[in-house]
């Protein structure tokens, strides 16, 4: 097992005779300046490619030294096309005596999950219904237009402001769920079409950055609830999460510092209504900064917010009310599936086990589906990120059956209990 394979990967010319590597050797290449990963028993050196990775360098780095087969299949809607980018990075393959899975993972569970995915593909569950997403976008635009007309005809009086706040809260929340669909490439067959519409929805309707969202959100999906890998739980100086972090913080002597920072910030600054609006405006500033030219910036900011800006004080109150309501809606829905679940350091589990341990479902109903943007099917969404959301209920029985077979806990709860569990 020589080092010649490493040279082949960096030069962009894979060798004819592939080198064979053991898992012990592959796992050593998980550093910032040295990253290997395995996809379908093939070994790739992604050290230099990571910075050019469309999904960001962090998400691919999180899989360094591991079998990334399931993550690769989960995030790419056309693996065959992506293979052409992988080919120059190929440096070898697993030795014949090496198992396909690293770190003593249950190989039969992994194979059964991949069989389940193939079954879902054969059932056309990865094919989107154009009518569903057209109607969904239509009801968002209808609410935005209605708000426009109300501002134009009725101004920004108190009664109008309250009604508008409810309408805009609903349209913005639903636009947030819709941009999530396009961001995950779950609507169109071509990635480029998904990216274009994603930029429109998140940029024009939400006023945020598609690139920033992609780079953070895919890290969350690759390693949910994993400290130092999932940005959604890297909040040490605001909250300590899970069962192990509070103990580690206390033992490391950081407790006093963290408590002092929390006290200085004030308990009110840690509420969802404070955190999320600040984050939204930071995102908008970042997005504007990256926009090319003044005209592009104006076009990509929500026109409705420009109207509110020029309307003055009344519209300022409207914006505050809308963001107050929307931030609560967004935070409670997105956190009820993750924060009450296991939050810990990397355990190198298989794809199914790691995703189910960090997520839970909310009971299905027409209201719950609409209110959460089908994120009440969080387990299915995390297992199959590119699957159109209207098909989650179809694959759910298959997922539950597989979890039951291997004793993997599949948690589902009522909406009310999920809200209460966040507080707990």
TrEMBL record:
<dbReference type="GO" id="GO:0006636">
    <property type="term" value="P:unsaturated fatty acid biosynthetic process"/>
</dbReference>
<protein>
    <submittedName>
        <fullName>FADS2 desaturase</fullName>
    </submittedName>
</protein>
<dbReference type="InterPro" id="IPR005804">
    <property type="entry name" value="FA_desaturase_dom"/>
</dbReference>
<dbReference type="GO" id="GO:0016020">
    <property type="term" value="C:membrane"/>
</dbReference>
<keyword id="KW-0443">Lipid metabolism</keyword>
<dbReference type="Pfam" id="PF00487">
    <property type="entry name" value="FA_desaturase"/>
</dbReference>
<feature type="domain" description="Cytochrome b5 heme-binding">
    <location>
        <begin position="18"/>
        <end position="95"/>
    </location>
</feature>
<comment type="similarity">
    <text>Belongs to the fatty acid desaturase type 1 family.</text>
</comment>
<feature type="transmembrane region" description="Helical">
    <location>
        <begin position="157"/>
        <end position="178"/>
    </location>
</feature>
<keyword id="KW-0812">Transmembrane</keyword>
<dbReference type="InterPro" id="IPR012171">
    <property type="entry name" value="Fatty_acid_desaturase"/>
</dbReference>
<keyword id="KW-0444">Lipid biosynthesis</keyword>
<keyword id="KW-0560">Oxidoreductase</keyword>
<dbReference type="Pfam" id="PF00173">
    <property type="entry name" value="Cyt-b5"/>
</dbReference>
<feature type="transmembrane region" description="Helical">
    <location>
        <begin position="131"/>
        <end position="151"/>
    </location>
</feature>
<keyword id="KW-1133">Transmembrane helix</keyword>
<dbReference type="InterPro" id="IPR036400">
    <property type="entry name" value="Cyt_B5-like_heme/steroid_sf"/>
</dbReference>
<comment type="pathway">
    <text>Lipid metabolism; polyunsaturated fatty acid biosynthesis.</text>
</comment>
<keyword id="KW-0276">Fatty acid metabolism</keyword>
<dbReference type="InterPro" id="IPR001199">
    <property type="entry name" value="Cyt_B5-like_heme/steroid-bd"/>
</dbReference>
<keyword id="KW-0275">Fatty acid biosynthesis</keyword>
<dbReference type="GO" id="GO:0016717">
    <property type="term" value="F:oxidoreductase activity, acting on paired donors, with oxidation of a pair of donors resulting in the reduction of molecular oxygen to two molecules of water"/>
</dbReference>
<keyword id="KW-0472">Membrane</keyword>
């Amino acid at each position: 097992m020589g080092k010649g394979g490493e040279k082949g990967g960096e030069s962009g010319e894979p060798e004819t005779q592939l080198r064979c590597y053991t898992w012990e050797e592959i796992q050593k290449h998980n550093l910032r300046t040295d990253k290997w990963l395995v996809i379908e028993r093939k070994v790739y050196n992604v050290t230099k490619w990571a910075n050019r990775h469309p999904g960001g360098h962090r998400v691919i780095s999180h899989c360094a030294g591991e079998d990334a087969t399931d993550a690769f299949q989960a995030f790419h809607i056309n693996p065959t096309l992506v293979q052409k980018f992988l080919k120059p990075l190929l440096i070898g393959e697993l030795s014949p005596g090496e198992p396909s899975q690293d770190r003593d993972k249950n190989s039969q569970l992994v194979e059964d999950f991949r069989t389940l995915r193939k079954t879902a593909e054969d059932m056309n569950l990865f094919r989107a219904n154009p009518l569903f997403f057209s109607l969904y976008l239509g009801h968002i635009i209808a609410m935005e237009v209605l708000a426009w007309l109300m501002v134009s005809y009725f101004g920004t009086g108190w009664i109008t402001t309250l009604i508008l706040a409810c309408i805009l809260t609903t349209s913005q929340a639903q636009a947030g769920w819709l941009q999530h669909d396009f961001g995950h490439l779950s609507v169109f067959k071509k990635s480029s079409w998904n990216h274009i519409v994603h930029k429109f929805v998140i940029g024009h309707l939400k006023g945020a950055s598609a690139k920033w969202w992609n780079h953070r959100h895919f890290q969350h999906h690759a390693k949910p609830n994993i400290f130092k890998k999932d940005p959604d739980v890297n909040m040490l100086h605001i909250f300590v999460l899970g069962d192990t972090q509070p103990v580690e913080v206390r033992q490391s002597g950081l407790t006093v510092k963290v408590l002092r920072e929390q006290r200085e910030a004030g308990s009110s600054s840690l509420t969802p209504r404070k955190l999320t609006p600040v984050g939204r405006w930071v995102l908008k500033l970042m997005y504007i900064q990256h926009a090319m030219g003044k005209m592009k910036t104006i076009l990509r900011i929500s026109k409705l917010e420009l109207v509110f800006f020029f309307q003055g004080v009344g519209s300022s109150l409207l914006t505050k009310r809308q963001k107050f309501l929307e931030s609560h809606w967004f935070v409670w829905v997105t956190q009820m599936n993750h924060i009450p679940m296991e939050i810990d350091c990397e355990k190198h589990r298989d794809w199914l086990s790691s995703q189910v341990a960090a997520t839970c479902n909310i009971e299905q109903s027409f209201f719950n589906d609409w209110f959460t943007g089908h994120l009440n099917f969080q387990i299915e969404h995390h297992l199959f990120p590119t699957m159109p959301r209207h098909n989650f209920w179809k694959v759910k029985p298959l997922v539950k059956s597989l979890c039951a077979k291997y004793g993997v806990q599949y948690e589902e709860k009522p909406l009310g209990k999920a809200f209460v569990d966040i507080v707990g």
